[in-house]
Amino acid sequence: MNARPVTGPDAKLTLAGADGTQTVDLYSEEGLALVSDLWLKLSAEYKIMYEPTWLGRPIIQLPHDIVQMQELIWRVKPDLIIETGVAHGGSLILSASILELLGKGRVLGVDIDIRAHNRVAIEAHPSPIASTCCRAARSTRRSSPTSRRGRQTPAPSWWYSIRTTPRIMWPLN
């Protein structure tokens, strides 16, 4: 790719599509909105959210969202972070590592199913946050809640909880 950077106060952005052509000032709010929209669409198309890791664990988030999340955790200093969807565990490690720096709080990860290889990798993570505390506990919940449409929904079957002090893991039953 040999694109040259666009500079200058009168820089324009022109987009051509099925519904016509649109030209806006690049450095206007409308230009920022268009560039942001294009970034999100292209990020999804090229699966950019699958590239980042946090302390070596894949974290399925856009890079900007990772930075914003750590800023939010640092400013709010929560006692508890609940994450729905554990996947590879990168987001759990991110949240727990920021809370570790704060010296307080815990992370609870809830997922319908955590793949065995991901669970092993999270439990074996070399960080003090994960390696001394992570183990999974199968939920003892037998029934499934009913959704708004009257269908049975699966009950969460795995719970991860990371406490920064003391470091323990417990099922949420």
Tell me the helix content. 25-40%
Average pLDDT metric: 76
Strand order, sheet with most strands? 5-6-8-7
**Global outline:** elongated
Number of strands: 8
Radius of gyration: 21 Å
How large a portion of the residues is in β-strands, by DSSP E?
Answer: 15-25%
Strand-pairing-aware structural class: alpha+beta
Largest sheet: 4 strands, mixed
SS summary, helix count:
5
Ends apart, CA distance between termini: 54 Å
Helix-strand topology string: EEHEEHEHEHHEE
- Poorly predicted runs are 131-144, 155-173
Describe the structure in brief.
The protein is α+β, with helices and mostly antiparallel strands and 173 residues long. 32% of the residues lie in helices and 20% in strands.
How would you sum up this structure, described in words?
The chain is of the alpha+beta class and 173 residues long. It is 32% helix and 20% strand. It contains five helices and eight strands, in the order ββαββαβαβααββ. It has helices at residues 29-45, 63-76, 90-102, 116-123, 128-131, and strands at 12-17, 20-25, 53-54, 57-58, 80-84, 106-111, 137-138, 158-163. Strand 5 (80-84), helix 3 (90-102) and strand 6 (106-111) form a beta-alpha-beta unit.
